[in-house]
Amino acid sequence: MTLLKTENLTKKFGSFKAVDEINIDVKKGEVYGFIGPNGAGKSTTIRVLLGMLKATGGHASIFGKDVWRDAVDIHKRIAYVPGDVNLWPNLTGGEVIDLFMKLHGGAMNKQKRKELIQKFNFDPSKKCRTYSKGNRQKVSLIAAFASDADLYILDEPTSGLDPLMERTFQECVMKASSEGKSILLSSHILSEVERLCDRVGIIRDGHMIESGTLDELRHLTRTNLKVETKQNVNDLEDMEGVHNVARHEKMLSLQVDTESLDKVIRHVSQFGVLKLESAPPTLEDLFMRHYEGAGGES
Amino acid sequence: MNQQSFANTRRLTVFMLRLDRWRILIWLAALAFFTLVVPIAFSDLYPDQQDRNTMAQTMENPAMTAMVGPGALEDYTLGAMTAHQMLLLTAVIAGLMNILLMNRHTRSDEEDGRQELIRSLPVGKLSNLNASFNVLSLVNLLLAIITGLGLYALGFESMGLSGSLLYGLILGVTGMFFAGVTALMAQITENARTAFGFSMALLLIAYLIRAIGDVSNEALSWASPLGWVSGAEVYGGNNWWTLLLLAGSTIILMVLAFYLNAIRDLDAGFLPSRPGQKHASRRLLSPFGLAFRLQRTGIISWAIAMFLVGVSYGSVMGDLESFFKSNEAVRQVFGREEDASFTMQFVSVLMFVMALIATLPAVMAVLKLYGEEKRGRLDQLLGRAVSRKRMLTGYLIIAVMNGAVMLSLAVSGLWLAGASVTEEPFEFGKIFGAGLAYYPATLVMIGLGVFLIGFAPKLSSLVWLYLFYSFVVLYFGNLFQFSDWVSKLSPFGYIPELPVEEMKWLPILLLTIMAIGLMIAGVFGYRKRDIQGE
């Protein structure tokens, strides 16, 4: 069942297209990674989905309702964490968490609030002006995960958290996911996306340039190989589908397109393989490749 | 404290001056303008000693003394009059300027982490404070010179060189005193808001102690640095030694600030920070509750201020009749209505002025919503189950109530003070009605604010311009003989001038309808537009 769906979603500011015909669908129980460099249009897309901005083209719906017209109804069942958490300097963290939970509607789950405050090691008695970026994000994260929601929209929620807290955050996401909740996670921390997300969409300059499951995306890209052979390998550089060949004494490292893998292995095995290491492409390789590739065009 | 502690002070000083050049220029220009324009205006309004003596009679009541301090009423020369009516208030404003500038460069910079950046460079521990004092010494010195020499240059007989210099120096040194107070508060407290609050509180307490002392017990006035300002008897006794008193205490404050700065950690203060609420009270938990909480301190401060504005206007009503009869120039400002008493005309002008002032906090209350939007705080509220309409009406209700409360307080203050100084006081109902008649005009201004927030938020500060226009055309309308339509461009121009004129219900009704229309349209527009991010 699809909870969130956009069809050719477009948002223009004047003549500038911040978001250009983007299609996203997030299914029930799914964690969808929304990745892209700064300024790619992630936050704009999310703000359209929240009904803060009115789409200039296409259509977006959450729970089958229009994100602009039925914003309030939708918001009763979602929880949102912005990337830049701006709080009121003279309220305490605890007060803001209560306010957010109350405005979300539904019953206040005091137990959950208490657990999360402990888990995130957060002091709710301080004024917001004294909190660091990470602590302000904790306010927003605690309020979001303590609220009962079906869809979590998280816009770069961990950019100020330390590694321990990032792990706590990942646990929260996994727990929510295991309870059948859906999550839209915008991020540029690729290891985090790799760990958490079932599917990803890559956005650049307002365009969705790639989307699918991680395996599908990997299929489109290269495998890293490291080979040590008895004799020197010849003619490798000229083979189709082989990239970035480098030699360190006897060790040879190269990248191979998935469809050429078979051919390359056969070729290399003629020279007496002593050692062979292969690593799947990381999301980072994938991301870089798209980014550089597209950068090269322009 | 060794040489290291002050490293690079000079560069920092230059840097701060560069940052603040416009700010400083505007402050100095404004202070100099008001200091110099008043004696000129006085010499036009009260050319003869006889006029001034009448004025002195009007000033001779406890309420006036509490407001501007004691003066040389028995020898009310132009100089004595200027010093009496202006010096104390200008000194308070110079104090305010110093508090703002000092706080900006000390605790504010520290709280926002800018001092950490500076201190990581080869800059001494005390260099920032030292540079801040350098900058403000320069500012206050300029203030002293400009006002002192400027007053002398006006060339009035009763304003000699010695008195004029003392006038300027008193302003400068009082300013420096409050720079010292703020520097000290910036060491003691942990954040800029509290440092500002404490410094302002000390300024107000100094003013109040002096006010109470001046009215009841002269010895008490000497406990307040602002009492020393009046005690200098500028253009009279010229007591230069009060200047030494001010300067001496300023130096003590500065030394204390340096000492505390030297022994403390960066970002730390000396007041223990007490933990706040872990849970929100129930009253906070709604868009309306939040909006009210955010503005609570401001609303209370305005409420007190409005009441005091009313009291201060009311307190001069005692000898008005004789005063107006004897002074042609003042009469012109307030217009002529042959059949009405001067006091009544005065009251009707006051009503307009107070209604206009009471509109300021009301408009601020509604424009606050746009301020929140610009700071990127609305997303988190509207991202929850809160509709735009509910959000906007929360602020609107506060603004509407705010306007009514502020106006009522000002009018009540006026009546109370008026009743205590006149023998035949106005009926409360009459005064109150005259004030509340302006409320629909306030509503139109609030409505305009809502409308702009709904359709063109970036233009929302146009409301201020419109208010300023209203003030100019109606306040100076009689003096400059503007045509009628000029004042009819402002909603305030349609309000019947009670108690001089008869009550007219039609304009009141139409303005109210117009205000409601603007508000409804504004809510409609607000639901249709994009919410700005940060």
From TrEMBL, chain A:
Cross-referenced SMART domains:
AAA
Gene3D superfamilies under this entry?
P-loop containing nucleotide triphosphate hydrolases
Which InterPro entries does UniProt cross-reference here? AAA+_ATPase, ABC_transporter-like_ATP-bd, ABC_transporter-like_CS, ABC_transporter_ATP-binding, DrrA1/2-like_C, P-loop_NTPase
Quote one Gene Ontology molecular function term.
ATP hydrolysis activity
- CDD domains in UniProt: ABC_DR_subfamily_A
Listed Pfam families: ABC_tran, DrrA1-3_C
Q: Which UniProt keywords apply?
A: ATP-binding, Nucleotide-binding, Transport
Q: Which residues form the ABC transporter domain?
A: 4-230
What the record says about family reads: Belongs to the ABC transporter superfamily.
What is the name attached to this protein's record? ABC transporter ATP-binding protein
UniProtKB/TrEMBL annotation, chain B:
Keywords of this entry? Membrane, Transmembrane, Transmembrane helix
* Protein name per Swiss-Prot or TrEMBL: ABC transporter membrane-spanning protein
Q: Which domain of life is it from?
A: Bacteria
* Transmembrane residue ranges: 21-42, 83-101, 135-154, 166-188, 195-213, 240-260, 299-316, 346-371, 392-417, 437-456, 463-483, 503-526
